[in-house]
Amino acid sequence: MKRKRTVSFGEAAFNTINTVIMVVIMILMLYPFWYCIILSFNDSVDFLKGPLYLWPRKFSADNYKFVLQSASIWIAIRNSVLRTVIGTVLHCIFTGAAAYGLSKPDLLYRKFYTTFFVITMYFGGGMIPSYLLIRSLGLLDNFLVYVIPTMWSFYNAILFMSYYESIPASLEESARIDGANTVTIYFRIIFPASLPIFATIALYCIVGQWNSWFDTVIYTKSEQLVTLQSMMAKILQIAENQKKMIEQMAKGGMVGADVPNVSPETVRVATMVITTFPIVVVYPFFQKYFVKGIMLGAVKG
Amino acid sequence: MAKGKKKSRLLTLKKQIGFHLLIWPAMVFTFIFCYIPMGGLVIAFKNYKLRAGIWASAWNGLDNFRNLFNDFYMPGIILNTVGIGLLSILISYPVVLGFTLLLNEVTSTGFKRVVQTVSYLPHFISWAIMAVILTSMFSANNGVISSLLLRIGLISKPLNILTAKNAYWPLVVFSSVWKEMGWSAILYLAVIAGIDETMYEAAKIDGAGRFARMWYITMPQLKGIIAITLILSVSNIPHVGYEQAYFLSNSVNIQRANTLTYYVYTNGMIDARFSYATAIGLILSIVSATLMVVTNATSRKLSGKGLY
Description:
The complex is a heterodimer of chains A (301) and B (308). Chain A is built from 16 helices and no strands.
């Protein structure tokens, strides 16, 4: 049966106004990013002459040339990529496996295990005791500090567990009859059957690792362990750092007459665009996994 | 009998041993990275010296906590923490709910998806990136906000929001709302999607308008999820503001920017006053856990919904 669609005047007016509001919201969300992009592609001397609004006034790629020819940015890119890849893989294997163990409803001592973990969700040692622990473990100024402390999250384990519960028990029963042990079952049966939840958690990890800066700031000093985010953090924190940073970057790259026209402001923005680009390009394609994770969390929460 | 029970227990354990083996690495990990730092909290009751270590450092009872009460900066820092925390909640909830309800009324699913995807873009950037965006846009030297306001004549000379003391709270509160609005809406939208369509149809037949339907059907259905997120937000108040203070504070606005967690950072990591910083951190954790219990009980009483 086809219903006749009549739209009253009030209805139409509401829809129009609502659409306008949504467009305004989208502009509010996107413009700051756009502003940074045009700033980064504008000549830095020209920028001093007046504000930019919608388009670069004097187009120039010098900021990017400068940033990408410095040695330190490549160290930062390498570290950011490494910590993201290694950290994500370790987290998924470690947390996913322990969650599988915990997901057995008739497991002996299950109550003890979960209590042990739940307490840590409510209470912790905080910044200083954690720093002292990292220090005594010898993880200061060590790449491992990026990927070891992030291996486990009970919150993510809960998400894994609620997904495992939806896997039919018959699947692992038959493997058990065939004589497979728990670890084999986990890798051969459970893991392939749980790819969506692994994708979800992996994406959370990727974003978390890529965006992480505080651990670099408090746990490392070495120039070799700089990440893109910590580089941004350093450029930002003290105005003097900006000049120093530029000098440092220039050292690793071009010399003399080849050094392009750059200012701390535009270099900073160009670095920011490079840092943000990978995440912004990737996230729209994976949004269904993010949403799934949130939903699972809400059901459990 | 007891012996038989014990035996069957051992048998089950043997049968389940694989699962226990999977759990134990996480147990060890949790012990090291969560429980040892909890033990490390004892330095709040000591005069901790890095060189002496935790055990050799001398006890000083409650001295660190007493110092806290005599700390000249403490009242201002508490005010900033509570102020920024409460303001964020007061502003973000109406904004997020308003956005959710309006987005839900968008008729075209394609357009809705686009708006949603765009709206949570800022969630994926760190505060380091946020800070670059904010300092570029709000800069007094040709920053777009200041220039625009000059152009339309609202101000007569360049405005430096980043170094204006009184602008700090609004700056961080609104930028946080901007950053998390779309992301927070996902949860509410998912709950709305689960509401029985026939309730809306029935209300429509009874003559309920669009806003009446939002208010009398959608909002009550969202009560539970709002209660849960509110509990988490309130118990997080003691921890607000350190990332923002790290990037956006300066000698001018630090009076308004300094919050409890940032103070823990500067005391502990910069001034190396480990014991004092830990004492503040300990109190923060206790307050946070207490807030969670209290808000949970309140929410149970008011709406029947709680976290546990």
